[in-house]
Each structure stands twice: as structure tokens, then as C-alpha cells.
Amino acid sequence: MPYVVERKPLTLSERLYFPQILAGMRVTLRHLFAKNVTMEYPEQRPAIPAGYRGVPTLVMDPNGREKCVSCQLCEFVCPPKAIRITPGEIPADQPDHAHVEKGPKTFDIDMLRCIYCGLCQEVCPEEAIFLQNQYSMTGYTRAEMVNDKAKLYELGGTLPDAHFKWDKKKTAAEHGNAH
Amino acid sequence: MNAVVNLWEGLHPLVQMLIKGLCVIGVLFPIGGACSLVERKVSAAMQGRPGPNRAMPFWFAWVPILGPALQRLGVFHLMADGLKMFLKEDPLPGHVNKVYFLLAPVLGMIPALTTVTVVPFGAYLDAAGHLVPLGLANLDVGILAVFAVSSLGVYSLIIAGWSSNSKYPFLGGVRASAQLISYELSMTLSVLPVFLWINAPGGEGTLSLFKVVQAQSGSWHGFNLASAHGLWGIIYLPVSALVFLVALFAETNRLPFDMAEGEADLVGGFHTEYGSMKWGLFFVAEYSNMMIGSGVFILLFLGGWNPLPWVPLADLAHWLHLGHQPILLGALSIVIFLGKVLAFIFLFMLVRWTVPRFRYDQVMKLGWQKLLPLAIGNLLFYALLIAWLQPKL
Fold it and tell me: Once rounded to an integer, what is the mean pLDDT over residues B243-254?
């Protein structure tokens, strides 16, 4: 039900206007001496809150192996079609990569298209792609604004891992499937 | 010192005037420029941000302490701005009326700089112990000259708006003319009581700004009517001061009366089509008007170069033994006066960030329905009061 807000008639000091201006000037004066609320950007950086969606990056597991298996779910879910993946095989002759299923041959994210929606992170079954803290992405050419695989891993680094999928697969292969 | 005085007195009067004029302009312009920087810094501080603090010629960074300090103060932004205005391309739009378009900024500067000549800005004691005003011309019609010349400034805005031949400048010009003409009336009426006060009936009449200050420089004689002469105008003519102050804000197109520019609704108002130094001239004219307006307000209502109520400059000179040092005393009086002007300009900025802009109809309503009757009533009241009081003073 709509209700009527009662408008109080103006008091004498409000109608005279000047007392109100003087009160306002006092507030302005207080702000003149108050601490600045802005940050001097390039020297001072803002603290990034947890869950911030910055530039999307690829991460490795703590053993330095890539987690992405190039399932291309992120490529398909990406609304602006910023991600391009070419799937590739893992060479069989690398012992420390023995149980890695698959990996991307190339992985490009066009940062001129990316809208930082975070759907790629959400959809990734391997927890391999994360939108991390980097918020400033600049370049002089269009080509510079496309992050290739090497750049993505460089930006992503290694995040703590709860699963160790490749280690589990290795134990499973060696001791029989526990599941 | 004496050699300098002798050299000065040996000069042709015209040369003397020229040097004096150049000195005044040489002080007025840098202060006007500094005001634009102070405005930016003060605005920033009031909004809780640091303000301009980046620009610096790279070699200045090598100067220890001073370099970074000046950079933080934003001094080089001021210089960069000025340089930019001189060096950037000066566009002349194809659709404007060229003669008037080029004339308008010049017309804005002329009244702004001409009014300086009649505003006394200091005083010193001559050998006979009389106070002599420091100024380019001590006219006996001082206040009339100020009003007559400064109201010509509105032509600059009208011509700029009209000759730009596009809609926003045109609207800005129309608004500026309406606003300036409306507030001119209240302004003139508000200063009449001041001159009623200082012109005793039967005595020699004067409109001189120097005499106004003289009327405010009495000493303390105990609680009697003679002490009233030591009071400043703002105390015994508060309504006049208030009306003059409001009209001054409107006349100088400062917020909350910046109808003529109104960047929210009129792009830039009358100066939308202007660029580079032509635009800069409008800007400088506005600041000069602000300073001269503040100067006139201080002469009329804030005791001019008198340091405090009941402490006239002559008494101060006596205490500091500056009675026979005209140059030092003159400099001291100028410092006092300029200090008051700068404090007043700070008030302009304080009001700018306190009071929201008026709508155009509110401006007209305030001018015609509130200020004008107030000014007329004030004039009548003081005419009667002075007629009753003057024989007793």
C-alpha cells in the first residue's frame, strides 16, 4: 500500500537559507582538513579482495605439471569467444608427465575480447584456469593483447592443489584402482 | 633608498604611471594564475583527493627537497597549462561571426583590467602624517567608475555567445546577460548605504573608495558613538554586505550562479566555441573580476588595509615606528590588503563546493524577488537611521 511521506514545513532557519549555507560551509571546511580518500595509483596499489576476477590465467599443479587437459569446455562456454585452444598429446617419453592425460598444444586468450566474466574458471573440471589478481592489462598492438600459453602459465604460476590428480592416477595405475 | 626615491621623482609622470601600471599587472596576473592552481588544489582537498601533483620538468627532480615539494604542490601543472594555452592550435570555427568572435575575449579583459586602476590597494603616511592611498588613480568617483566599467564586462559574454552562432553559446550568452543585469541593480543599491554613512549632510560629498576605508579607520574611544567609526562596514551594514556578497557571486559568474557556463546543461555556455588562449582570456578575466570584486568588497565592508577593527593602519604604523618609512608601511598595507583578498577568494572556493547550483528560474527569483526588495528596504532603513543618527555622531 502506498503511503504518504509527510513533508515538514521548512523551519525559519531553513527558509532564511543562510544558516544552512553556513552549516554546509562548516562541513566543507571539515573535509578540507580530512584525510584523502583516494590512492595515488601507480605508487600505491589497492589491496585485491579475495575472489577478485582479474586476468584469466592457467595454473600448474605443485609438481610443475600443467593441469589443463584441453577439454575445451572453457572455449565453448566463453561468451565473447576469447579463448582458442588447440588440443595436443603429451609425449610418452617424459617420465614425470607419465600420467598426465592430455595437454593443450596452444592456448590463446584474446584479452581484447575477454569480458572477465569468470565462466571459464567456473566451468573448468580440472581447476586449471583461474581469474587471478592482475587487473591492469596493457599493450601497444592487438597481437600484444593476446595471451598465449607461455604467458598464461607465467601469469598463473602455481596454486595450492587439493586433488593431485596426476599423482592419484599414478598410484591407481601402480596399485590397482582403489575406487 | 633615497637615491631610488629621487630617481623615481625625476621621472616623467607618464613614465611613472606606466611603471606603476605594469607593476600592478605584474602582481595581478601571477596571483590570478596562482588562484587557478589554488582553486584546483583546494577543490581537491575539499573532495578528499590530493589534486595535481605529477607534472615536473625531468631536470627539476634533481633539485633536492624543493623539486619534489613543488611537484607535490602542482606548480608545474600551472606552467604547463599556461604554456599549453599559448602553444596549442587556435581554432576559428567556420560558422562564427569572425569580428565579434575575436573581439569578445578582448572585451572581457578590458573592463577586468581597467577597474584595477581605481581600486586603492594600500596606503602610507606622508611627511605631514596624512594617510595617502596607494593606487593607480585615486578617483573621487571611485565606486561609480568601478560599477560603470565592470558592468561593460557583460558585453563580452553576450557578444561571445551571440557571435558563436550555435545554440549552447547563444543560450549561455542570453543567460549571462539576464543574470548580470538583474544582479547589477541589487549590487548598486546595496552600496548606497555605505556612502550615505560616510557622507555627512552639508559636508563635501564623495564616492571615493579611499574615503570609505578612512571612515572605517577610527580608534577605540570607549563605549560611545565615536567608536563606531572604528568598526568595519560588515558590522554596521550587515544586510548591505550580504546583498553585495551574493550579487558579487552572481556578477563574477561563480558557483552557485554559474548559469552562463553551466557545463551540465550548456556544454561550456558562452565559451563553448573558444579554444586555446582566447578561452584563456575569458578565464583570466573571470579571475581578475573575482579579485577586483573581492577587493571592492574588502574596501567597502572589511576595512580595506586596516588590520583589525579599531586598529587602523596609522595606529599600527605608530606602534611599529613605521610612520616615517612610507615604503615599508605601503608594503605592509598591501600585504594586509592582499591577505584579505586571498582569504576572500578562499571563501569563493568554499562556497563553490558547498552550495549546489541554482536553477535558472531560481536565480531570477532570488535576484528580483528577494535581493532587490531587500536592498531597497535596506537603503530606506539606513537612510532613516542615518538621518536620525548623524547629528549625534
Answer: 87
